[in-house]
Amino acid sequence: MLSDALWLLGFTALLFVPLERLLPLHGDQRLRRPGLATDLLHVLLSGFIIRAGFVVSLSGIGLITARLIPDSIGMSVRSQPDWLEFAELFILSDLCFYIAHRIVHAVPGLWRFHAVHHSSEQLDWLASFRVHPVDQIFNATLIALPGIALGFSHETLVLYALLYRWHALLLHSNIRIDLGPLNSVIATPHFHHWHHADQTEAHDRNFGGQIILWDRLFRTAYVPRTLPQRYGIGDSLPGDYIGQLAAPFKPVAPDKTESVTAMVQVGPSQKRC
């Protein structure tokens, strides 16, 4: 399994590192940036935990929905043209991504896990792997819920999973991409980088995954022409791998409870505990 992680790391590096050098969002960002070693450990070690937890959660969804949802619904879904089936899964899954993303930002207990992902102070393709296993399993489960519950075909599920994974890498990358008119529809690195910005105007903005539709609809979109000046959540989390895994489980000091609640209300870009 470690060899699989190494192959994934090597393949994605061969693709994204040259692009980040040729088309950088931030031209002064170095390859050997702060937090690089921590992110490498997230890739190599956390993936095992995440995959195991996701398999368990998917099994639970399958058992529950098999009893609640008739097989005829799945048959009807799979009988559609492939393009229509994929389009439906794409829309439903992206909506679930948006909902899950807003939940982990709004619920203090869940934010403590999601904060690990927001702790990166420089973004590139590797930063997308900095996630706490609990946070990633929760998000992935909600995103997968409509696909499993409604009986979408295996091929459609795999295709969407691949698109989701590679788009996530792109969104966090230090790559400048201009899609023209599609910038107002499809999420780009510029769009998602503002979600990670440690600036007041970016608090609780740009929750969308693949498309910006939901942020436009629920008025959470924020896409200025400029780039963020700062990323991260300050020094409220340890910078090392083990410290980041352990931090969400540590009790919050009583004198910090009020400040934590206030920060949750204004968004993830504030420093939090």
From TrEMBL:
Ranges annotated as spanning the membrane: 45-66
Major location (coarse): membrane
Keywords: Lipid metabolism, Membrane, Oxidoreductase, Transmembrane, Transmembrane helix
Designated name of the protein: Sterol desaturase family protein
One of the Pfam families matching this protein, by short name: FA_hydroxylase
Membrane topology: Multi-pass membrane protein
Residue stretches making up the Fatty acid hydroxylase domain: 89-220
Organism ancestry: Bacteria, Pseudomonadati, Pseudomonadota, Alphaproteobacteria, Sphingomonadales
UniProt-annotated location(s): Endomembrane system
The keyword Cell membrane is annotated on this UniProt entry: no
Annotated InterPro entries: Fatty_acid_hydroxylase, Sterol_desaturase/TMEM195
Source organism of this protein record: Sphingomonas qomolangmaensis
